Amino acid sequence: MAKLIELTREGRVALIRLNRPEALNALNSALAEELTEAAQALDTDRGVGAIVITGSERAFAAGADISEMAGKTAEEMVEADFFSTWDRFAALRTPKIAAVNGYALGGGCELMMMCDFAIAGEGAKFGQPEVKLGVIAGMGGTQRMTKLIGRSLSMDLHLTGRLMDAAEALRAGLVARVVPDDQVLPEAMAAAAQVAGYSRPATRLAREAVMRAEELSLGEGVAWERRLFHRLFGTSDQKEGMRAFLEKRKPDFHRD
Ligand code: HXC
């Protein structure tokens, strides 16, 4: 059976490509497991500083797999804790960049939002069209989208099921950058290489601190950030980074 993801490495960057093009990369349970297991292994690999997740030209992912879910009962969904695999993916500490061409719908948009930021092509389309299927988002979409783009626009997308184009997604802050379609992967790989070139503890803790902003009050978040900031003074990369600045040279991080 063809693998549901393809994993390649370029230096300290890992690239994961979703590989169900015939189903527009619909996210079935097997794909979720394969992707999460691969990403969990990368997360503990000190040689990996960033992960890029991408799909095909036509679709990043057109949602959770409707054919897998269609016949399920509520009892089966509860028993399997359906979609809980994605919590393990979202909890990974390595910076993850989504490189998005084509459709990022439903679970596809939710997977994109589990990544730390997204770079999209001009032709990309985003949405949470679950309402058209008689359900709602189930991989965190109502929560992450609302935190990313605000209640009003999130409600619009979840209640009408309409799609958003790349220009609107950029304005809304759903994606960080929009580039010509054929530049999406090169741009994402270059951004990932930049991240992966810095101190590994610094990028992981920067990511953790920013993510905490979604959970904590301002005071708690600032205190959390300060403790992580202090912690970094125990790394050789902090010494090297600051020494290199003072000596007017490029730092040579050991990424400890
Ligand atoms: C299963 C899917 C799929 C999906 C596409 N396909 N999306 N299969 N699950 N989410 C399959 C189609 O059945 C078709 O298979 C093939 O991919 C190509 O899709 P087409 O529809 O023929 O392509 P096109 O006409 O270009 O339309 C593209 C599209 C449309 C607009 C993206 O496919 C679409 O609306 N897909 C569903 C989008 C959606 O509703 N996503 C949310 C899912 S629910 P065949 O075999 O016919 O070639 C979700 C969260 C659920 O994500 C949470 C609730 C618990």
UniProtKB/TrEMBL annotation:
Keywords in alphabetical order: Lyase
Superkingdom as given in the UniProt entry: Bacteria
PROSITE patterns: ENOYL_COA_HYDRATASE
GO molecular function, one term: hydro-lyase activity
GO BP terms in the entry: fatty acid beta-oxidation
Short name of one Pfam family: ECH_1
PANTHER family in the cross-refs: ENOYL-COA HYDRATASE, MITOCHONDRIAL, ENOYL-COA HYDRATASE-RELATED
Family: Belongs to the enoyl-CoA hydratase/isomerase family.
Record's protein name: Enoyl-CoA hydratase
